[in-house]
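Quick look at the format.
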Amino acid sequence: MLKELKFLLIAAFVFLFFYFLPAEQRVIEGLKEAVYLTHEYAREHVIFCLLPALFIAGAISTFLSEASVMKYLGAQAPKVVSYSVASVSGTILAVCSCTVLPIFAGIYFRGAGIGPATTFLYSGPAINVLAIVLTGKILGIHIGMARAIGAIAGSIIVGLLMAYIFRKEEIKRLGEVEIPQTLKTIPFYQRVILLSTLVGVLIFATWGGKEGLAGFIFNIKWYLVCFLAILLGMQVVFWFKVSAIYLILTGFFVVLTQLLLHEKEISFLVGLVGFSYALYKTKGDMEKWFQSTYLLGKQILPLLLAGVFVAGFFLGRPGHEAFIPSFYVNSLVGGNSLLANFFASVLGVLMYFATLTEVPIIQGLLGAGMGYGPALALLLTGPSVSLPSLLVLKSIWGVKKTFVYAFIVIFLGTISGYIFGMIYS
């Protein structure tokens, strides 16, 4: 009865909303921006960012033993080691708040303590080298350094607070993680090289720098991706007995697709599909790798795209009006009051920032009158958290942990921005 009543209330709300359609023009603009933002995310971030990240997460789940995770990131690991490793692990990964989720889920379910895992979750998107350099170059060295220091220190504080608040639940969860008594037969160096190759594919496929050395790498990045893909194929053939025929056919169709369509996204996707099929047809660890990747994708992708759609509806894309007018945003983040920093932090937690796009967005907001304190608050919250990522975290953690995590991030962003604003002024 209660379930039916809930359904009827939701149905009535949806009907009345569309019947009366308040703020008709704003709703239409919001829907348009939601569609455009979801379209951009699907084209620019799913194939080159999220799908490789899912394969990395699946590989972590398959090849990284519970004992290894517990040694460096487990609750019993020395805090200096676990939090140091987690806080700087994202320096080479140009990932957004959503792309980091599969990797976070992989290490969390593998036995990492909630503290170090949360530290990685927060710091991963916030401290990659490209983002810090771009921030310092465009917004100023002072805010670039403040972002680097704030992201590392903030990630450790967030992790420590989450570990303390949920210490009793963690004891129970980690007690249920079964650590095998016998070591895996796969040599350690093979696991390290395989994971490094996958990370290399993710880094170069998403490489965006276009000046100096970064520009040189950008010009040859697809040659590097091809080299790493061939290297990955050789690894799984010689080390894990994957059929070379499947991978040769995959390479043939990748080349054929590129010659016919000249679309790197489609060619890359064809390669992923062929590689997945080769893993699926190979018994043992390769089949487990494919299954782990598939299950993570099934859990994360639907919620992620729904969250991007909602974020686009309310906040839109940079330079485009959505349901919430940009005038209100700009009027609320001027100066350096606690309220301005708080609002910037809340906005950062809700809004989705694609990798490295936070810098031009904040550059535009600074030009419109945004204070430097709220700018730092937005830099520390926006890349690390978003409404889409929170929706996915809810399915991993539950409502309570997700709410506490968002609250801590908002609080730290507000205080950090306020202190920086006072120092800078």
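Next, a different chain entirely:
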Amino acid sequence: MWIIIFFVLPLAGLAYALWHIWCLLPFGAPWRGAIVAMCTLAFLTLFLNFSRLIDRLPLGLASACYETGNSSIFILLYTVMAFLLLDIGRLAHVVPRSWLHANGYTAAALLALMAVTFTYGYFNYRHKVRQPLELATAKDIGRDMKVVMMSDLHLGYHNRRKELARWVNMVNAERPDLILIAGDIVDGSLRPLEEEGMADELRRLDAPVLACPGNHEYIGGMAGAERFMAEAGITLLRDSVATVGGLCVIGRDDRSNPRRKSVAQLMGMADSSKFTIVVDHQPYHLERTERAGADFQLSGHTHHGQLWPISWITDAVYECSFGQWQRDGTRYYVSSGMGIWGGKFRIGTRSEYVVATIKRATR
């Protein structure tokens, strides 16, 4: 199933799009061939990024390959959607056949549409939304607590140290008591994090940082991820519990580990007299956190699809794929992520960080 989704469908989409591009371009065969070859090469760079060969390239070239290959999959999606609409219009006798054959006007219009769409998507990704969240509790937590919550930083070849420094400044400006990160701090390879000294940047955070692992920590290698977190001053909670003031934070290992503890087991290790927060990267089986009696759960992983209409898929797969949710006395927040995987585009979704204020409920 995964082979079909990640290999067969993209390659079929590539063949469909390239055929239409070949027919549409109003140039001679050599020029059309060169353009089709360039598009193919850009897409095939994606597969380089899934291999360790990228780590052998100079850092700048490796970053360019990552950006090109991983952006191409999203551009391909919108190109296929555009040609599908044109084909449907042609079959419905709304779009003339001449629009799709050696037509410079159609080619220019599509190019302009893609340029505008993905320029917007890039700047929308760059804009980080500050999401306030108020959590009231009957439990005695002492004083009010301000907690900055994030997920899915995906630090690596595309989210480099300069961008991370901007995020650290945003978080420090909130003057939080605690910072929680719900997994996927590392995108994959640790090489760009180590070469750029990103651990030094993360150590600038002015509050204790607690995190749980995500599936990308497992993809890149958990041993290396743990070493990086320690260097960065991040306390990685893998089926373990930490107490900060009146808060008890439970960090679940990622579901990539089939032997991880259940929420009920972890709640047995927690001080239930305190406000309990479960940090679990992937928001599956939210009812289990409710049944275990936790007060709040922070998750990420979904990115809310990154682009529309993929967001429709995540909405169908998860009980909650983005935003606030509640089950009985347990509240949830599923973040769409501070960073992103792949191309830096957000269309119909957003990058965000949550600023939660946890306070004693007034009676």
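The mean pLDDT is 93.

See the schema section for token definitions.
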